[in-house]
Amino acid sequence: MSRSYFGPGPIWQGVSSSPAQGKGAACGRWLTTAALFAAFVSGCATESAPQPPAVTPDAFEHRTMAAGAAWPAQDWYHGFGSDELNALVDEAVRDNTDLTGARERVAQADARARQAGAPILPKVSVDANGTYLSGHSQQGSGHELDWFAMLSASYEVDFWGKNRATANSARLQAGASRAERDTVALTLLGGVASQYFQVLALRERLAIARANRDAAKKILEAVQARFDAGVASPTELSSQKAAWYTAQIAISDLEQLEMEARAALAVLLGRPPENFEIRANNLDSLREPVVAAGLPSELLTRRPDLVVAEANLRAAHANLAAARAAMFPSLTLTAAAGVQNPALPATVLTIPGVGPSYSAIASLTQPIFDHGRLASQRDEALAREQELLVTYRAAIIASLVDVEKALAAVQHLDAVREFQQGSVTESERAFEGAQLRYQRGSGDFLTLLESQRTLYAARDQYAQYRLARLQALVALCKALGGGWSGSPGATPGAQAAPAAAGAGDAASS
User: Fold this and answer.
1) Which residues contact 23 (CB under 8 A, 6 or more apart)?
2) Which long-range contacts (CB under 8 A, 24 or more apart) does 344-351 make?
3) pLDDT for res 500
4) Higher pLDDT residue, 271 or 67?
5) Highest averaged pLDDT of the listed ranges 45-49, 59-63, 466-470
6) What are the CA-CA distances from residue 62 to residues 26, 66, 293, 397 (Å)?
């Protein structure tokens, strides 16, 4: 329902339609038409923004039915059971440069919203001026001191809702800026968790590579002894030396990757990589939280990036209303009162001397010809609204894709868990048997070498599998919004570090 600015009843009510009062009736009809038109335009300015066609399914295709599963909470990263990870998240929320910049952008958007809302209320100012005039001619000389001190107020009557629409657009954009900040925070928390797991997985793979190198070293010593005794061939000795060298190269490569992963994690924390250490050395101490997705329609209020898209669409709709209202007349009222000399410096009548002075001005402006500028601004605003409508729909589809991919990844990794574990178990058994037979002289060298390679590959693959499971759970928590909600200050990670949501709001208050 649009708000009326004409009071409880029309001011033309009760006008007679007799011929003697034809002009009054005509005036009443004109006012009626103007009022109805103003109400129509005001209603257009406050109507809701268009919504994209419904694209959310009834349920996710790869949804899980695990007992105790629920939407992730704001502190979803606590579910991995790592105090070190929790401390790293706190540090990232406090010091990350991207999140700090996002908070400052929220403060800027809040300031713009306050600026845009200022024209809704009257503007009051104090003006003072003094002018000394002096002149000389053949008729004589003279001088005069003119001055004034006035209190003035001006107000643009917002008949068509232009100022309200502009203020509403700025307010919505400020809300979008907050949701963008929360999107950055959610992405940051997911990045910290994923990168932390990457560091631990690389350290675990390093331990596996070093164990493989040590095993290769022992086999090389055995082959060397057999070669010295004339039992092993030069080919066997060279092959095992090459296997030992390859194990050394793998260790060097993994050490480089671990250093790069640690440096990338330090960047997320907003700190230099020098002297940055991680205490944990493997993934053994981590738990896997139980996470499940609810209804797809709930994503619309649980993901901050979707709230950004919706707020931008609604802001564009408000801008369109303002562009339409700019095509209609504007009425500005100005009043001033104070003391001045001369008391009445009018063009026709001047009252000399010091005295109180008052003025009242009403200015009505109607654009007539501007070479299509206002119409083009309206068309631009309309096209922008349609663009953001498509963008909102694309964001909804992308969010559904994110959830489906994360759910499918978790299901796939659950399905191959038994095979991954079985591969490691059987590879260990095969290597132990081949090594024992070779030491007793009943086994061939190629079988031993191949079983060693298979065992290393199986253990390394299993470490990567464990990393993939943890990262899939992180991706699922992110895709489901990470416990975000549209309530004020509900920034991801807020329970661990409330400054993530509050710092930007405090800066703008």
Assistant:
1) none
2) 345/146
3) 44
4) 271
5) 466-470
6) 69, 12, 9, 16
